[in-house]
Design goal:
Strand content: 15-25%
Number of strands: 12
Structural class: alpha/beta
Number of helices: 14
Radius of gyration: 22 Å
Distance between the termini: 33 Å
Helix content: 25-40%
Largest sheet: 6 strands, mixed
Strand order of the largest sheet: 3-9-6-12-4-5
C-alpha cells in the first residue's frame, strides 16, 4: 500500500509542489495458505467481504477447489478471473481482460489506474515467484517486441509465501529458480551460498524440503535459505524500489543474458540464461583477481551440480558485443556489470574493453571443457511449462520438444535488449506465476488473451503440463 502526502507553495511566478509517497507492505511465511485452519489470508478480506482471484488456469485447475472451499469457509464471496501466464500472454489484451472483470464487479475509483492503485495481495507459486518476483513492486506488460515495456511500480498490501506449492513444481523449474538464489548469495550473502553449496542436490530433488521424504535437516536448511535470500533481496532493493539506481547487486547475471536468452531457436529458460552470464562474469572477475581461483572453481562447480548452464555454443563474441551495446543503453552509458568480489560481496565493472571481454570468453570456454556436458545445463530450454498456453497442438508441441533437444539455431530476428521472441515460444517469466487476490473488486469474466492461442501446452512453470483449461 502507499500513502501520498504533498504540499503546495506559491512562488513569484507560479507554484511549487513537494510530494512524498509512503510505501508499506508485508510478507508472511505461511505453508498452507489456503488451508482453512490458516485464517491469515481471509482476515485480509473481512472488511470487504469479497474477493477477486486473478490466477493462472493451471494453478486453478490444481488448487481451485481448495481455494473455493477456503473462502466459502470464511463466508467470503469469491469470483475467479482465470487467465494465461507467460510472455506471449503478458499483453495489453490480458491486462484489459482483468480490468473488464474489475469493472463488471464495480470499481468506482481511479479508472485510469484501476490496477495501479487498487489494493491486492500476492500469492506466488513457483521458486522464482517466491524468491525473486515477490520482492519487486514492478507491474508491467509487454508491448511490441519489448518485455515489461508498459507498467508502473505498485506494491501489494501483503505477500504470502507458501513454499508447499513447490510440491507440484517440476524439478526443471526448481532448478530454474535455484539460479536466482545463487545470484543473490554469491554477490551479497555468503552464509546462504554456503548452504546452497552444502545441500544443492537435495534442495532441488525435494522441492526445497517440501516433497514427501525430505529430511528435517534439508527442510530447515531450505527455510533458512529462503528467508535469508528474500531478506537480502529486500535490503538491497527497498532503497531502490523504483529502480532509479542503476548499480544493482541483483543484476548479477543480467548484463549479457537479456540478449542471449532468446537467441537459440528454442529460448533458454531464464535461470539458465543468467547462469551462463554469471559463470562467465565469474571468469571475468577471476581474470582480474577479484575472485580467487578457489572461489571461482567453487561457484562454477555449484552451477554444474545444480544442472544449470554455464555455456552455450551461441554465447559468443558477437553476442557479447551486441549485448554490451544493448545494456549500455539501459544503464545510462555504463556497463555496470555486477561480479563477485570476493565471493559473497559485489563490485561493478565499467572499464572493460571488448578485447578483455573476448579474452575472458575464450578462457571460459576452455575451462568449460573440464565440466560435465561442457558446461551445458539440464532441461535448459523452454517447453510447454513456460509458454503460457493450455491448448495443445500435437505437431507443434513435438516440434518444440525436438528443437529443445537440438538447442536450435540462431534466430534471424533480434531487436536488442529485452526482446520478446517474435513468432517463437517465449520464456514464461520462468516462475513468476502468481495468484493475485484482490479485496477491492470482483468479477466472473474469463477473457483470454490472444484468442484461442493454439499450438502450445501450458504448465505455468510446470503446473500440470498440458492440462485442459
Amino acid at each position: 500500500m502507499s500513502d501520498l502526502t504533498a504540499s503546495v507553495l506559491e512562488t513569484k511566478n507560479g507554484f511549487h509542489v513537494d510530494g512524498y509517497e509512503k510505501i508499506s507492505y508485508d510478507f508472511t511465511f505461511l505453508d498452507g495458505v489456503f488451508n482453512v485452519e490458516n485464517r491469515q489470508l481471509a482476515e485480509c478480506y473481512q472488511k470487504w467481504g469479497r474477493v477477486l482471484a486473478v490466477t493462472d488456469m493451471n494453478v486453478f485447475n490444481m488448487y481451485g477447489e481448495q481455494i473455493e472451499k477456503y473462502f466459502q469457509h470464511y463466508n467470503l464471496e469469491l469470483k475467479v478471473h482465470k487467465t494465461k501466464i507467460g510472455e506471449k500472454a503478458k499483453t495489453i489484451p490480458t491486462f484489459l481482460s482483468i480490468v473488464d472483470s474489475m469493472t463488471e464487479f464495480g470499481i468506482y475509483r481511479k479508472v485510469l489506474a484501476q490496477l495501479l492503485n487498487t489494493n491486492f495481495i500476492r500469492v506466488p507459486t513457483t521458486v522464482i515467484g517466491l524468491i525473486d518476483a515477490s520482492v519487486s513492486i514492478k507491474v508491467a506488460v509487454n508491448y511490441g517486441n519489448y518485455k515489461n515495456r508498459l507498467g508502473a511500480y505498485h506494491a501489494p498490501m501483503h505477500t504470502f509465501l507458501d513454499f508447499t506449492f513447490l510440491r507440484s513444481l517440476p524439478t526443471a523449474q526448481i532448478r530454474n529458480g535455484f539460479a536466482e538464489l545463487i545470484k543473490i548469495s554469491s554477490c551479497s550473502h555468503l552464509p546462504t551460498f554456503d548452504l546452497l553449496d552444502k545441500y544443492c542436490e537435495q534442495l532441488i530433488s525435494t522441492g526445497f524440503g517440501r516433497c514427501d521424504g525430505a529430511s528435517d535437516e534439508v527442510r530447515d536448511a531450505a527455510d533458512k535459505i529462503n528467508r535469508e535470500g528474500i531478506h537480502e533481496m529486500l535490503k538491497l532493493e527497498t532503497p531502490n524500489l523504483h529502480e532509479i539506481g542503476l548499480d544493482r547487486v541483483i543484476a548479477y547475471g543480467h548484463t549479457w543474458s537479456p540478449m542471449h536468452e532468446l537467441v537459440p531457436e528454442t529460448p533458454l529458460r531464464h535461470g539458465h540464461a543468467i547462469s551462463i552470464d554469471m559463470a562467465y562474469s565469474a571468469t571475468l572477475a577471476n581474470n582480474r583477481k577479484l575472485l580467487s581461483d578457489e572461489e571461482h572453481h567453487r561457484i562454477l562447480t555449484l552451477f554444474s551440480r545444480a544442472g544449470l548452464s554455464m555455456d552455450h555454443p551461441q554465447f559468443d563474441e558477437d553476442i557479447l558485443d551486441k549485448g554490451t551495446a544493448a545494456i549500455l543503453k539501459t544503464r545510462d552509458g555504463k556497463l555496470r556489470a555486477a561480479v563477485p568480489n570476493p565471493l559473497g560481496s559485489c563490485t561493478f565493472l565499467n572499464d572493460v574493453s571488448a578485447e578483455e571481454l573476448n579474452a575472458a570468453l575464450r578462457r571460459h570456454k576452455e575451462i568449460m571443457k573440464g565440466y560435465p556436458r561442457s558446461g551445458e545445463g539440464l532441461e535448459a530450454f523452454v517447453d510447454a511449462s513456460d509458454t503460457g498456453y493450455t491448448e495443445n497442438n500435437q505437431k507443434e508441441a513435438e516440434a518444440l520438444e525436438a528443437a529443445a533437444k537440438k538447442a536450435g539455431n540462431l534466430n534471424a530476428t533480434m531487436d536488442g535488449d529485452n526482446v520478446v521472441h517474435g513468432g517463437k515460444v517465449m520464456n514464461g517469466v520462468n516462475g513468476h506465476a502468481n495468484v493475485h487476490v484482490n479485496g477491492h473488486f470482483n468479477g466472473v469474466a474469463e477473457h483470454l488473451a490472444n484468442g484461442s492461442a493454439k499450438g502450445l501446452t501450458n504448465g505455468v512453470d510446470g503446473f500440470t503440463n498440458g492440462a485442459e483449461a
